[in-house]
Here is the input.
Amino acid sequence: MARATRKIEILHAASKIVSERGIFNLTLEATAIEAGVSKGGLLYHFPSKEALVKGMVDHLAENYRDKIAASVAESTKEKGKWIQSYADVTFNNPYPNKEMHAGLLAAKAVNSDLLDPIRDLYNEWQTKIEQDGIDPVKATIIRLATDGIWLSELFDIHHLGEERKEEVYVKLKNWIDE
Amino acid sequence: MARATRKIEILHAASKIVSERGIFNLTLEATAIEAGVSKGGLLYHFPSKEALVKGMVDHLAENYRDKIAASVAESTKEKGKWIQSYADVTFNNPYPNKEMHAGLLAAKAVNSDLLDPIRDLYNEWQTKIEQDGIDPVKATIIRLATDGIWLSELFDIHHLGEERKEEVYVKLKNWIDE
DNA sequence: GAAAAAAAACCGTCCAGGTAGTATAGTAAA
DNA sequence: TTTACTATACTACCTGGACGGTTTTTTTTC
Here is the structure.
């Protein structure tokens, strides 16, 4: 194995293009150039554009799952560790979120079915969050609010100031332990 | 055919295509066919694809603004009528939301600057929501949670069951008046 | 442990099909 | 006369993917 990283490099390149230049600029050639590989080389790893986008989504879903799981494993809380971890990771990790944004947009554009791994992820989390020792409705609201932050970052629609964002974060956190 | 409606029909057709077939199928020809107009006719109203997408966003921003404003005007509440209206409209109006989804995705794909009218809208609402007689952090959380519903509908990621959605809605509503 | 064979990783060009936008000539109604 | 279109043809360009190579790495054989 020359290096399993080549595939990953290509996926990062693709995400970068979507983030910085938009989905219409995600072409095979542009991705190849960004990744420093030839078009043929790219097609060796991902035999079609759809395969490339599928690769993006699968990869980020796995990453995100691990990230949350690691945070949960570290937690010493008795109740609400899942929702706490979900909020922590989303509020404090701009980087994987950016890849997530790119992956979601690309998948939505190319073929909605490619979003299935994300759907699975959400279903898993929602189940965990609802069975985590706190009121499931409350937990769901916290999840939704966290997703709301996400939506505004995805479209750059309305950035809460850092201060207000922090206030929201603290209030949600306290609410978990109430 | 009535005059002013043609442009709007074209915009609806464009939204429909984005919703049902994805952004890559939003071509000038497909839009013209869907709207029952010739390609030349479409280009008469919208001289470029970007102009078309701009039309989509401008139109839906205006619509949404009116919708919320109407709900606020109807409200008899003293406090929290803005956040209440925002939640009401978003939770209970699947239709304009669909157009919003299409417009957001199209604008994000074609040219992020086209999202400016939506940004203005959000800034206006956020200001109103924070100056509406209730704790601004609480109000912001409710807004975010409402946006969270939106996110999951946009990507069809995780549909809360109707029951849970209703529970969330009720809890948020009660929280406003607390 | 070196040579040979096989597999994996990668290159770069070519092409058919599609798309935005232009051009033009004409029609119908207000 | 202007506005609001229809219909068709055309251009200039881009893109996905096929294809036939080449190089690098791994495995097998002697």
